[in-house]
């Protein structure tokens, strides 16, 4: 509130002065990278008088043409204030004032000089965020200003170079005899904000955001019920809602963000974010609503029935967007103190899912999150998806085809654990392509489980991936950096050897991390049937303990 009244007072005083004609300069700058002009359309414009300056660009200042969001900066040389103003459309404007940054700027003087556009310029240097900035300014024109907020009080800055490879240089200086003074002043109708709120609003205007979940509880609890928009299944351990994706541009980048806190569960758990394809006769939603045994059964000869894990002519498995793992009790158990340990308040996961562009573009989808747990408090999550403009994306012309997903997200609803790798056949899936697929790749996620000394969670096991009986890749999915995430694990067990349970290396995951997909090159695929086989030497059972492997695969190609 104090910021609002301060800016309102300052603007009222500025506009209390008669709007007269004044003498000014117009300086046009071009941006260069490694000696090449970045874009003629990105020219920076500086309009400056004895008292005020406007910093904008050609697009925003063009007559009768407005590009939103339209961001400009105003400088008051009399009281050393910097105003930042943005309009998001032709009526919603926001403004903030910074009275400190111009005063705090410090420069190292040099003896170097050179002539720019006929004016003698002096060089100063400074360092900002480990970047070396060189400014060339002149005092011959008796005007001040600069192409950025840096160096506004030096004189008239005609060139700025960052790290020797990026340059803003003046190309033209024009005198204006009669300029309306109000053009160099902020808009008094703009809504005042503090600097942090203003910068946050500008930042979030650069991308589209789709909220998915906000502080939703995932727990094994009969009281954890569905509501009008969030559907809960498997005794509350799976949450689902329907969202609509906008029409995506060709090169858009798509990111998934998830924040997790323990709401009572102390253990590291498997988590998965997924969408439910509904392009065929049957979908995983049937299993969620009517019970897991209505889903297609996969058998590989080991005597068990695995529900809904492979594609058939009438069914597509879940599309896994992200595989993540909760840490040991972050947030809820932070009261368990250790010397020199300051626990994180939450686990944060962020992943680029742009390769799944074709499954999301202009689609209304069921999107869900699973965390396996048998705790009444369970876990609390918030999740959203952001869409960002980009000039290039390697997946813009690709098609994504879900083939298999053995993660038993209905674990608490009776879905069989993925123990199918205890026989040599492992997982074998035949899929049919209606059209040829060029530059095909398998988006493959694999994590091993079995949390005792001889369980596959702690034993490196090779994964062999074959296509049409030909081996395409053999590798060991393994993580050795788990100790890096110790501060998210307040109740991880501590052992006599000085290690915590969360320190130990694991089969491609750590408590508090995302497991990244592996892209496996498959080459060009002809139309017709193809068979993918996954083989893993799964460990033997010990008493009531068993190992399992959660693997998911999506074919991506042009």
UniProtKB/TrEMBL annotation:
Disulfide bond is among the record's keywords: yes
Signal peptide boundaries: none
Domain Peptide-N-glycosidase F N-terminal residues, every copy: 209-387
UniProt-listed Pfam families: N-glycanase_C, N-glycanase_N, PNGase_F-II_N
SUPFAM superfamilies: PHM/PNGase F (SSF49742)
Record keywords, A-Z: Disulfide bond
Name this protein carries in UniProt: PNGase F N-terminal domain-containing protein
Naturally occurring in which organism (per UniProt): Paenimyroides ceti
């Amino acid at each position: 509130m104090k910021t609002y009244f301060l800016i309102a007072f300052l603007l009222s005083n500025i506009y209390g002065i008669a709007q007269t004609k004044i003498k000014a300069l117009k300086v046009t700058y071009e941006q260069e990278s490694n000696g090449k002009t970045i874009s003629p359309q990105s020219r920076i414009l500086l309009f400056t008088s004895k008292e005020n300056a406007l910093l904008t660009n050609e697009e925003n200042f063009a007559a009768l043409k407005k590009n939103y969001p339209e961001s400009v900066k105003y400088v008051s040389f009399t009281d050393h204030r910097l105003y930042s103003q943005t309009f998001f459309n032709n009526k919603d404007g926001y403004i903030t004032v910074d009275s400190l940054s111009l005063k705090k700027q410090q420069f190292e003087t040099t003896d170097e000089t050179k002539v720019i556009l006929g004016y003698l310029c002096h060089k100063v240097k400074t360092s900002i965020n480990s970047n070396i900035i060189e400014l060339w300014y002149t005092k011959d024109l008796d005007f001040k200003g600069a192409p950025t907020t840096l160096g506004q009080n030096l004189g008239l800055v005609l060139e700025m170079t960052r790290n020797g490879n990026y340059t803003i240089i003046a190309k033209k200086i024009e005198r204006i005899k009669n300029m309306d003074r109000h053009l160099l002043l902020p808009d008094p109708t703009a809504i005042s904000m503090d600097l942090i709120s203003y910068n946050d609003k500008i930042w979030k205007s650069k991308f589209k955001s789709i909220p998915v979940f906000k502080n939703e509880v995932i727990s094994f609890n009969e009281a954890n019920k569905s509501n009008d928009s969030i559907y809960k299944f498997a005794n509350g351990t799976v949450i689902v809602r329907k969202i609509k994706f906008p029409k995506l541009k060709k090169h858009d980048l798509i990111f998934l963000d998830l924040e997790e806190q323990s709401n009572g569960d102390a253990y590291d758990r498997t988590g998965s974010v997924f969408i439910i394809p509904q392009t065929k006769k049957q979908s995983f939603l049937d299993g969620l609503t009517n019970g897991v045994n209505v889903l297609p059964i996969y058998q590989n000869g080991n005597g068990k029935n695995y529900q809904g894990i492979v594609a058939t002519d009438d069914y597509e498995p879940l599309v896994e967007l992200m595989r993540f793992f909760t840490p040991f009790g972050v947030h809820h158990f932070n009261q368990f103190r250790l010397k020199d340990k300051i626990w994180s308040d939450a686990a944060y996961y962020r992943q680029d899912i742009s390769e799944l562009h074709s499954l999301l573009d202009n689609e209304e989808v069921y999107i869900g999150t699973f965390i396996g747990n048998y705790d009444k408090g369970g876990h609390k999550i918030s999740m959203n998806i952001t869409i960002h403009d980009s000039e290039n994306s390697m997946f813009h012309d690709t098609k994504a085809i879900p083939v298999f997903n053995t993660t038993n997200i209905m674990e608490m609803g009776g879905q069989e654990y993925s123990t199918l790798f205890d026989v040599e056949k492992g997982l074998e899936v035949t899929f049919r392509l209606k059209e040829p697929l060029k530059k095909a790749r398998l988006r493959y996620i694999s994590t091993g489980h079995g949390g005792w000394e001889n369980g596959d969670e702690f034993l490196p096991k090779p994964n062999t991936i074959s296509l049409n009986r030909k081996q395409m890749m053999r590798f060991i999915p393994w993580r050795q950096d788990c100790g890096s995430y110790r501060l998210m694990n307040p109740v991880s067990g501590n052992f006599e050897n000085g290690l915590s349970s969360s320190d130990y290396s694991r089969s491609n995951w750590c408590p508090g991390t995302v497991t990244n997909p592996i892209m496996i090159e498959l080459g060009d695929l002809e139309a017709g049937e193809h068979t993918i086989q996954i083989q893993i030497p799964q460990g033997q059972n010990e008493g009531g303990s068993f190992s399992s492997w959660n693997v998911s695969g999506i074919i991506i190609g042009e």
